[in-house]
Amino acid sequence: MGGAAVAVLAAAATRHNRARLASLFYRVARGLHEASVAAAEEEKVGTRSRRRRRRSSSSLLLGPDFPDTWDHPPRAASRTLPPRVAGADYGCTATIIDGKSIAEDIRLHIAEEVCQMKSAAGHVPGLAVVLVGDRRDSESYVRYKTKGCEEVGIKSLLAKLPGNCTEDEVMDSVSRFNEDPSVHGILVQLPLPQHMDEERILSAISLEKDVDGFHPLNVGNLALRSRKPLFLPCAAKACMELLLQSGIELMGKHVTVIGRSKVVGLPVSLLLQASCHCQCYPCLHNKSRGHYP
Ligand SMILES: Nc1nc2c(c(=O)[nH]1)N[C@@H](CN(C=O)c1ccc(C(=O)N[C@@H](CCC(=O)O)C(=O)O)cc1)CN2
């Protein structure tokens, strides 16, 4: 974290400052996603990557239109970085990206930022998760998020509600976290039970604490391109970060994105178009027909 950012944090907690604090969670979640993608890759392929990462700044990814809301310094250029990518060129051969090592680097950097924030501002960021129901996959994702917070010194809070609770009970949890000054980021773990109006609940999250970037205004601002979402969905930003940190040139490329979910496919397409001027072909998904380039 840059000196300027420390000073900003030490100042009174304005709305803007809270957004800066909250972006830390966003980046932790991104690191977690990278780690799990990398773990899956490693299991499947059983290989370590051999190429050096070329660059490492999320603000570079976003460009001037999408500045990172947290004003952090570039990671130390002098550090010897482990190899990141296997595969000699980016032509027709498959390239394996070492997401695990990139994620480790991001986590270390965030831990340092949290430490500096604690000494400068006297408090650490707080992430609140709302988990409804007992889906095993959701429970394990939330466990990873909590563990990720612990590892870097972020305070985590959990509101766990039964699957048969009412939508208003979920709304109450969101409101409580919105009002809690020790909470800077809020995640409502998806999917929610079918009887709930997901959009209503996501819209209730304070824009400045919407670290998932799923609030309709944040999604809309990303789609409009000329506007700045406060947060981006972490899985999508993780995909972009992995590509960029691996030195894969994206500017102006033709890209096919597989999937169009709100969590990954759609925001990846929007990000590729907005920050890299990519031509994205209609997202391939389970209803796609015909041939795509
Ligand atoms: N509030 C949110 N809810 C959900 C999100 C989210 O980002 N915010 N994303 C998913 C669940 N999820 C994290 O919460 C998540 C899902 C999948 C992965 C992942 O890395 N998948 C790998 C496979 C990993 C494996 O099989 O071991 C992959 O798809 O290649 C990370 C996070 C929905 N809910």
Write the layout of secondary structure elements.
Elements: H1 3-10, H2 15-45, E1 51-52, H3 58-62, E2 83-86, E3 96-97, H4 99-121, E4 126-132, H5 136-152, E5 155-161, H6 167-179, E6 185-188, H7 198-204, H8 216-224, H9 234-245, E7 254-258, H10 265-276, E8 279-284
Parallel strand pairs: 4-5, 4-6, 7-8
Antiparallel strand pairs: 1-2, 2-3
Helix pairs in contact: 1-4, 2-4, 2-5, 2-9, 9-10
Bound molecules: the ligand Nc1nc2c(c(=O)[nH]1)N[C@@H](CN(C=O)c1ccc(C(=O)N[C@@H](CCC(=O)O)C(=O)O)cc1)CN2.
Structure description:
InterPro entries: Aminoacid_DH-like_N_sf, NAD(P)-bd_dom_sf, THF_DH/CycHdrlase, THF_DH/CycHdrlase_cat_dom, THF_DH/CycHdrlase_NAD-bd_dom. Residues 233-275 form the Tetrahydrofolate dehydrogenase/cyclohydrolase NAD(P)-binding domain. The protein has 293 residues and is α/β, with parallel strands linked by helices. Helix content is 47%, strand content 13%. It is built from 10 helices and 8 strands. It has helices spanning 3-10, 15-45, 58-62, 99-121, 136-152, 167-179, 198-204, 216-224, 234-245, 265-276, and strands at residues 51-52, 83-86, 96-97, 126-132, 155-161, 185-188, 254-258, 279-284. The strands form 3 sheets. The protein has a 3-stranded antiparallel β-sheet with strand order 1-2-3. It has a 3-stranded parallel β-sheet with strand order 5-4-6, with helices on both faces. α10 (265-276) links the parallel β7 and β8. α1 crosses α4 (99-121), α2 (15-45) packs antiparallel against α4 (99-121) and α2 crosses α9. The longest helix is centred in the N-terminal third of the chain and has 31 residues, at 15-45. The N and C termini lie far apart (42 Å). 40% of the residues are buried. Mean pLDDT is 76; it is low at 1-22 and 35-83. The ligand Nc1nc2c(c(=O)[nH]1)N[C@@H](CN(C=O)c1ccc(C(=O)N[C@@H](CCC(=O)O)C(=O)O)cc1)CN2 binds next to α2, β6 and α9.
